[in-house]
Amino acid sequence: MGKKNCIVAQSGGPTVAINASLAGVVKGVKDSQVFDTIYGSVNGILGILNNNVINLSEIVANEETLNRLKHTPSMYLGSCRYKLPTVEESPETYAQIFEMFESLNIGAFFYIGGNDSMDTALKLSQYAASIGSDVRVIGVPKTIDNDLCLTDHTPGFGSAAKYIASTILEIAHDTFSYPVPSVTIVEIMGRDAGWLTSASALARNEYNTAPHLIYLPEAPFDTAQFLADVKELLKKQNTVIIAVSEGIRDKNGNYISAASQTTDGFGHSHLSGAGKALENFVTSNIDIKVRSIEINVLQRSGAHISSATDLTESFELGHHAVELAEEGVTGCMVTLKRLSSNPYKVAYGHENVAKIANEIRSVPREWINEAGNDVLPPMYEYLRPLIIGEPDIRYKNGLPDYMDISHLTKA
Description:
Blueprint: E1 4-10, H1 18-31, E2 35-41, H2 45-49, E3 53-55, H3 56-59, H4 63-70, H5 91-103, E4 106-113, H6 115-131, E5 136-141, H7 157-175, E6 182-188, H8 195-198, E7 213-215, H9 223-234, E8 239-245, H10 274-285, E9 289-294, H11 308-326, E10 332-341, E11 344-352, H12 377-383, E12 395-396, E13 399-400
Parallel strand pairs: 1-2, 1-4, 4-5, 5-10, 6-8, 6-9, 7-8
Antiparallel strand pairs: 2-3, 10-11, 12-13
Helix pairs in contact: 1-4, 1-11
């Protein structure tokens, strides 16, 4: 019996490391004695539905290109925010997907993404089982939010955490230059989980104590207590730098600020403006210079300050996914298990994707102080190994030299 082929897609929000996982899948197929060609679906699952597929075995034909792909940020295959309907809602959609698999002689499908992508992987693996298909479906984790369950951390998070900590340190250097009392509020992505905002604590060192306050979605936010926290610090110091998650909410679960009441295709609120809302609140109550900074999407593609640890683990997870498919494993997500923090060591494994899809992994409440305005030592121990190492980025004309993504810019 001849070798089967594979297909891979990326979905959700971009990260610095998602292409490292893609490179790992490509390398895994190249090393495989079971699989032959690796195809890429452009713009997630939509590429399969729209017959927009490219041959990655031909495009990533040598080690140089593979290494370049590994160090290119964002998504070489492009993304989508498409919620796959249930089989009951649209049986023809599933039939179309598996007809495409059959036409390309697909033996395994790898979906690199976050929580919503794992939902797609779950639905496809369940459908495959229901029709007796031998196509293996495996999820490869990715999200700067670090909120996927049953894995120690997610690819992309370490690099984003490094970006956030570095940015906060640089903001501190800028702010401390002026002998003027001020409050700076930095809004950081994180709708349901505060992992990324927690990483701001890594900016603290022997001379810098900023951020002086950290607020996460996991602890109820009280505006009156927030104002009291700021006023108390201003009695002791000239400047206060504050890190807040975009998803901070009060004790009733109401977001402190939302741009609108609209939601995306998965029912997630479109959030922005928490930092601006707090800026206005402080300005109204304290006569002091106040500014808010929304970091927003900047850390998602900041490969120039990525974590070598993050890229290495992301690549290995992609490669491990292919190994699992070779063994006949399906309906799973590849995972990282931390064996030790010092020295740092992990093991690669997998878990049933049904236990991961549509679940949220929050920051443990015991890693947040009682006042809800800072993180505790276990968070530092958890975070520090994830940002270690600087990868060898190629430069051209003074700028990073990434993979050509013109195939994503065509109408």
